[in-house]
Amino acid sequence: MPRCRISAQRDRYAAPVPEAGATVLPAVGVRPVLVAAFGTYRRRFGLIAGAALVVFGISAGLDVLIDVVDDRASEYPGLVATLLVIAGLATFGTTFFAGLLDRIVGEEERGHPRRPLGQLLRTLPYWRLLAADALLSLGAVFATILLIIPGLVFYTYFSLVGPAVVMEDRKVFDGFRRSMHLVRGKFWLTFFLVTLPLLVEEDVVHGVVALVGDASPFLVFVVNAVAGAVVGSVIALVEVTLAGRLAMRKPDPALAHVSPRSP
């Protein structure tokens, strides 16, 4: 299978790629990845937590509205359109949040200079991330329809496509190829740090929300938003940290010799 071509002009804000043969490489394992992820969270808490509250707050608001409307949606056609718009915003928001974490981890783990939030917002490859996420979800669903195990295997091997697209400025299908290359040899590590937490994320959040299920819609919204932000940001940060470290340990020679575009 021919190697996908890497564009000679890379995103100038993409994280630097280590030279092939570099000797100083980050540790890859459950403990070092978790320690690094929580270290990044502590140093960049304001930005990460703030963005997570906004993104997961949109999803929490959507959940509350759906519960309030329940079976009466047909009576309020305008409200249905509003819910669809909010759902679109929630999808876009989670894509933005994943890309933002990729940039932050690139800065923290690879020594890339910090950029203002506005600059980060302007330079994220939103459409590529949305396309990669959609293909990953569709592929996992299709494989799971056949059997559960193939679905889990598919998702695990390609779960790092988002970080590959952002950190190394790759096209969508090249990101899938790169994800499989990174996970190969680290399948169980990726499964336990990425796939398994994602499987239980929704149950954990809903379990916390169930504790205040009979409270006012506003309190349910607040608890849902905070729980989603805490759980979702930690899981996403661990995923991106693992991807970044694997990428440094497995540099792509074709990418290592491409210089970033001049400002």
Structural key phrases:
globular, 263 residues, disordered N terminus
Describe this structure in words.
- By secondary structure, the chain is an all-alpha fold.
- It has a domain at 30-123 and 162-169 and 186-256.
- The protein is built from eleven helices and no strands.
- It has helices at 30-43, 45-69, 77-110, 117-123, 126-146, 148-158, 161-167, 172-183, 187-210, 217-249, 253-256.
- Helix 1 crosses helix 10 (217-249) and helix 6 (148-158) crosses helix 9 (187-210).
- The longest helix is centred in the middle third of the chain and has 34 residues, at 77-110.
Proportion of strand residues: under 5%
Q: Over all CA atoms, what is the radius of gyration?
A: 19 Å
Helix content: over 70%
State the distance separating the first and last CA atoms: 35 Å
Mean pLDDT: 80
Report the total helices: 11
According to DSSP, the number of beta strands is 0
Task: Report the uncertain regions.
Answer: 1-21, 257-263
Structural class: mainly alpha
Task: Report on the biggest sheet.
Answer: none
Shape: globular
Order of helices and strands: HHHHHHHHHHH
Summarize the structure.
This protein is an all-alpha fold. Helices cover 73% and strands 0% of the residues. It has a domain at 30-123 and 162-169 and 186-256.
